[in-house]
Structure formats: structure tokens, C-alpha cells
UniProtKB/TrEMBL annotation, chain A:
Protein name, entry field: Uncharacterized protein
Native source organism of the sequence: Herpetosiphon aurantiacus (strain ATCC 23779 / DSM 785 / 114-95)
From TrEMBL, chain B:
Protein name: S-adenosyl methyltransferase
Family matches, as CDD domains: AdoMet_MTases
One Pfam family linked to the record: Methyltransf_19
Length: 128, 259
């Protein structure tokens, strides 16, 4: 059976291996805290909202590729331990995390583009 | 350089390499050409920016609340005033387009000032610092991603003058590129290309760099690779086809104090 230590180390190693996909705001030394949060989330009987988890991971600077790698590694680990049911349950949960993550990412990119256009507009006006 | 969206700009290219949105198609094209030339450049940009984050948090944990940041580029994607919104920050860059754009990004924030000057004209930067920090000279200073664009004379004068000017207890965080004494042909070509783009990289070995940092006192853990600061396996090697026995190039990060 997968223990909390196993799942934490699977998540931590996957996050570390993918650290270059994360944002410039998330130096790898901070990844162990995030790995613990994800591990806790997966093992909780009544996990905190998956939607909130998706938003939190995006805000902390996790890259989509890192997140997808974590989902793959967690599934592979449960299946390796013969825990099909848990693999399915965690997949359902992580799907909601990914959806929320992507939603926040899209909203962020849109607002950054707007901010860029606005800033360029202001600059061009101020330069006459 | 004027703000000109039809010309690639170093600050916006860097923003693109870090995955940001503050760039035009010309910047993205120029960045992609750089990536073709040096495939590890994106990783290098990330390691540098992560080191800035590590540096600002380490300095803040020590109680620093005044930051003088030399060669800031675009303060996007988690830059100093975002990491520490309560701090007083003086940014600097010599590129007019970068500065004009950066001021618009910062908006009306009295804690943050962006000053345009070449590091070689340090006195004008120090005069701004005197004003912005209201005469308080115990500062956290950052020189991230720029030391290798400064020639020997400017680098040594800058470090010396900063030391004289700031108060005891001030600290400075610097990132470096160390290159072998005898670069292999591929690395020589790379350096020549940078020179041709108007941004020569000054190749120095770790031993040579150590000469520049006196009179500052090097703090623990000393000269450490950015990959180690960032707990990344392996090193950041820009001369990919390094021959057996060639000395390795890499990026380093240091903290120093005025004792
Ligand atoms: C690689 S970026 C580093 C940006 C930022 N410090 C960071 O770590 O993300 C280098 C910046 O240094 C600026 N720069 C280069 N030489 C300079 C000089 N002599 N004086 C002031 N700025 C300089 C460039 O315009 C560019 O914006």
C-alpha cells in the first residue's frame, strides 16, 4: 500500500525533475513545501477543494508540464502498488485540479496581455 | 535607445525567455535566434531569476528593507517590489526603452523608483539612492545578471565605490558567469557573437573573479554554482561541446558584506 511518505517522495522527485518548467518566481528549494501540500491533499479523506488546490499551485508558480508530470507519476505509483481504485479516485480529483489550474493560467495570460497593451498604449501617448 | 516596438529589446527578450507576456513578435524572434545559438540560455535566465528570488528573501530575512538593484531590466514576473511590497526599492538600467516601459509597469508607487543610468556612472545612481533611502546607507544591493557585461575597470570601480559609499553591514548579492582561461573554439565563437550584438561578455575564471570582490567579505557558502543554489542536478554549461579536460563554464552566485 502507498504510504504518505511514498506519495510525498514521488511528488517531490517529479517536481524536482521538472523544476525548469516552473515560473521564475518558484526557486526549486521551495518545492518540498509544495510536494507536502500535494501529498497531503491526495491522502486526505476529505481533501481541501481541488479547485482551490489548482489555483494555489498556479499562484505558487508551478508549470503546467510539472503538474501533468505529477499526475502521471502519482497514477503510475498507485498502479505499481496494485491500487487501481485509488488511481482512479486520485485521477478524478487531479482532473479538477488541472482544470482549475488551466482556468487561472488562461485568466492570467489574458490579463498580462491586456496589461502589456495598456502599458504600451500609455507609453506611446506619453512619448507623443 | 528610444521605445521602438519594431526593434528587439534586451529587457523584453529576457522577459520572453522567462515565459512572460511583456514582449513583441520581434523580441520573440530575436530570443528564438539566441536559443538556437545557445540552447541552455532559457535555463540560464531561470537560474538567474531564481537566484534573485533566493537573494531577496535571504536579505529580507536578515531584516533588509532597502534594495538598490543595478541593471534591473523589466521588473516583471515576481521582481523585488513584488516579492517585498513593503520595501523601498531603487531600480536601475541604462536602456531607455526598458526604463520607460518599466516605469509604466510600476505605476504610481512611491516606494519604488526606476533610475536610468549606466552602472559606469555610479555617482548618479548613488545620488538617487541617497534621496530615495533618505540618507540611510545600510542597503541590500543586487547585481544579478550583469557582472559579465561590465569590463574589468567598471566592475572593479563599481564594487570598490559601492563598498566605500554604503554603511557597514550592507550586503551585496551578485551572479557571475565563469569561463575557462582558454575557451574552446565553440565558446570563442559564442563570445564573438555576443560582441557582434553589442553586448560583449567578459570571460573571467573563478580565480579572476575573486580578485574583484575585495574589499567585500565573502559570506557563506562562498562561490556557489547557481545550480546548487537552486538544487538542480548537474551544472549550467554554455559550451555544450566541451572537450575532455576543458575547464567548465558555469554561473555562480555570491553574497558579500561590508564588515
Ligand atoms: C540579463 S538582464 C538582468 C535583469 C535582472 N537583473 C534579472 O536578474 O532578472 C541584464 C540587464 O542589464 C542591463 N545592463 C547591461 N549593462 C548595463 C550597464 N552598464 N548599466 C546599466 N544596465 C546595464 C541590460 O539593459 C539588461 O536589462
Amino acid at each position: 500500500m502507498t504510504t504518505s511518505t511514498d506519495i510525498y517522495s514521488v511528488v517531490r522527485e517529479t517536481l524536482r525533475a521538472n523544476s525548469l518548467h516552473n515560473a521564475g518566481t518558484l526557486p526549486p528549494p521551495r518545492l518540498h513545501t509544495i510536494a507536502m501540500q500535494i501529498g497531503q491533499f491526495l491522502l486526505d479523506e476529505q481533501p481541501t477543494s481541488a479547485t482551490l488546490m489548482g489555483r494555489m499551485l498556479f499562484q505558487q508558480g508551478i508549470g503546467l508540464k510539472s503538474l501533468l508530470a505529477v499526475v502521471g507519476a502519482v497514477q503510475a505509483d498507485y498502479l505499481r502498488h496494485g491500487e487501481q481504485l485509488r488511481a482512479i479516485e486520485s485521477y478524478e480529483l487531479l482532473k479538477v485540479v488541472i482544470e482549475s489550474f488551466v482556468e487561472h493560467q488562461i485568466a492570467h495570460v489574458r490579463s498580462e496581455h491586456d496589461r502589456f497593451r495598456q502599458t504600451v498604449g500609455l507609453l506611446q501617448r506619453s512619448l507623443g | 535607445m528610444e521605445f521602438d516596438p519594431s526593434q528587439p529589446n534586451a529587457g523584453r527578450i529576457y522577459d520572453y525567455l522567462l515565459g512572460g507576456s511583456h514582449n513583441f513578435a520581434v523580441d520573440r524572434m530575436a530570443a528564438e535566434r539566441l536559443v538556437q545559438m545557445i540552447p541552455t540560455i532559457e535555463n540560464g535566465a531561470r537560474l538567474n531569476r531564481w537566484f534573485l528570488d533566493i537573494a531577496v528573501n535571504r536579505l529580507a530575512d536578515l531584516g533588509f528593507n532597502r534594495y538598490l538593484d543595478l541593471a534591473s531590466g523589466l521588473p516583471t514576473q515576481g521582481y523585488i517590489h513584488e516579492i517585498r511590497p513593503d520595501a523601498l526599492v531603487l531600480y536601475n538600467d541604462y536602456d531607455q526603452a526598458t526604463v520607460a516601459y518599466a516605469r509604466e509597469i510600476i505605476g504610481n508607487n512611491p516606494r519604488v523608483i526606476y533610475h536610468q543610468a549606466n552602472i559606469a556612472e555610479l555617482e548618479s545612481i548613488l545620488a538617487q539612492a541617497e534621496q530615495h533611502f533618505a540618507g540611510e546607507r545600510k542597503l541590500a544591493i543586487c547585481m544579478i545578471g550583469v557582472s559579465y557585461f561590465l569590463n574589468d575597470q567598471v566592475l572593479s570601480q563599481t564594487l570598490q565605490r559601492l563598498y566605500e559609499w554604503c554603511a557597514p553591514g550592507s550586503q551585496i548579492a551578485i551572479s557571475w558567469i565563469a569561463l575557462p582561461e582558454n575557451p574552446n573554439p565553440k565558446l570563442q565563437e559564442l563570445l564573438a557573437r555576443y560582441s557582434a550584438m553589442g553586448s560583449p561578455i567578459y570571460a573571467r575564471t573563478v580565480e579572476q573573479i575573486k580578485q574583484f570582490i575585495a574589499p567585500w567579505t565573502l559570506l557563506e557558502p562562498g562561490f556557489q554554482r547557481l545550480s546548487e543554489w537552486n538544487e538542480i542536478d548537474g551544472t549550467w554549461v554554455i559550451d555544450g561541446d566541451r572537450q575532455e579536460g576543458d575547464e567548465q563554464s558555469d554561473m555562480y552566485g555570491t553574497f558579500m558584506i561590508k564588515g
